[in-house]
# Entry
Amino acid sequence: MVFHGVPELLCEGSPRAIGLAHGKGAAQQIRNSIALYSTLFGETAGIDWPEARRRAQVFLPSIQNHAPHLYVEMQGIADGAGDGVDIDDILTLNVRSEIALTNYSEGCTSLAGIDPAGRNHVFLAQNWDWVEEAADSLILIDLRADGKPRALLMCEAGIVGKFGLNTHGFGVCMNAIRCGAQDVSRLPVHIALRLAIECPSFAAAKALLDAKGLASTCNIVMADRGGAFGTFECSPHGNTMIRAAPSETIVCHTNHLYAPNGPRGLVDHPAANSFTRLARIQELTGGRAPQSIQQIRAWLSDEHGLPAAICRQRPPSATGTERMVTLATIIMDLTDFELEVSFGRPSLSPPVRQTTF
# Structure
């Protein structure tokens, strides 16, 4: 199936079977991913694709140690895509944040909260802002791995994890953080996101991320239908949870570190619009969680401060990573096991794909 130009893949069974289905079903999108990051690595880090493949090798022992099933899956993706795509290409895509995250970050706005005024519904949502060409690499996956909870994922083709919801009513989103800290013995960001969505709850995912640690810096937003939610600033120096203030029922994040008790010496390099977007989403929410998916969509459609708004448009004459736009909106009602995704700027009312377990 295809929704709004984005393939919808059923990937089920063993790690290799899942990888083969991913690779065969998204072969062109995987090649689009490789072409995109070949260009971006050159623009942001001054390296070509062969050098990026070489740099990716230092993360291989960590993946094989912490997530051997995902390495098998990655090999299946490469074999399924065929026609010259190999495991080193897929490995490089899966550590794309670690290769050049010190030089750029995506421009996402996220939120999580519980609505005590209604039926205590727990919500999790995000706009994903990135360069326009990445739209040609997006896929939706219905993941049914042996021995793991079923999950609905939105990913970049060739990458094993990103945003999603599982059958336990646990969901994950992520904000990129531009920061030079790195530890190759820990989990690359997208591997961590996939391992998190295999967890049954917020508490289990937090314990996993604390135990294994992250290879680079990002913010992971998590929530479960039991009412646990928070935004988790993760780095090689340690992880810091930001929960809602005592008088509030929502927590928001953009692309900078703001936990007051974060690891000492951890320095990020955010764009100025990260601060203005955070202030704006906090103003819109007023510290109160949404009462509906429709209310979240309205917040994430906000264009105050264009072009670098919550609903972002490409600035005139922008080049490099500054040409990013809002490519997708992901909204989850964890209480009702509902996920909806749309592609393109939500202010333009694109078609919405609604899915539930």
